[in-house]
UniProtKB/TrEMBL annotation:
Function noted in UniProt: Accessory subunit of the mitochondrial membrane respiratory chain NADH dehydrogenase (Complex I), that is believed not to be involved in catalysis. Complex I functions in the transfer of electrons from NADH to the respiratory chain. The immediate electron acceptor for the enzyme is believed to be ubiquinone.
Membrane topology: Peripheral membrane protein
Keywords: Disulfide bond, Electron transport, Membrane, Mitochondrion, Mitochondrion inner membrane, Respiratory chain, Transport
Pfam families per the UniProt record, alphabetical: NDUF_B7 (PF05676)
Location within or outside the cell: Mitochondrion inner membrane; Mitochondrion intermembrane space
Main location (coarse class): mitochondrion
Protein name: NADH dehydrogenase [ubiquinone] 1 beta subcomplex subunit 7
Stored InterPro entries: NDUB7
């Protein structure tokens, strides 16, 4: 499934996420990495030194999504700044004394 505005595709399906009880806020383009991470965590009794590879790959995916959104927002802000600065005719003309 293609997600608008993102370069990453959804790999995990809705059915897989429901079957693996992925919470709704975590159902993003990295959910396919969260499913094996949660299975590993449950199998290893949530020991913090276990499942490091799975956790690292999931956190890296989430980091990349955040960075992508930040770049998109920066582009939007730059476009808005360009529109505010130039090209528009002011509705109220500036007077010589103002």
């Amino acid at each position: 499934m293609e997600v608008k505005g993102s370069s990453k595709k959804m790999i995990a399906t809705q059915e897989e996420m429901v079957a693996n009880k992925v919470p709704i806020p975590y159902r993003d383009q990295c959910a396919h990495l969260l499913i094996p991470l949660n299975k590993c965590r449950q199998a290893e009794f949530y020991l913090p030194w276990k499942c490091e590879n799975e956790r690292h790959s999931y956190e890296k995916c989430e980091y990349e999504l955040v960075m992508e959104r930040m770049l998109q927002m920066q582009k939007i802000r730059e476009e808005e700044a360009k529109l505010k600065q130039g090209g528009s005719i002011p509705l109220i003309p500036k007077t010589a004394n103002a």
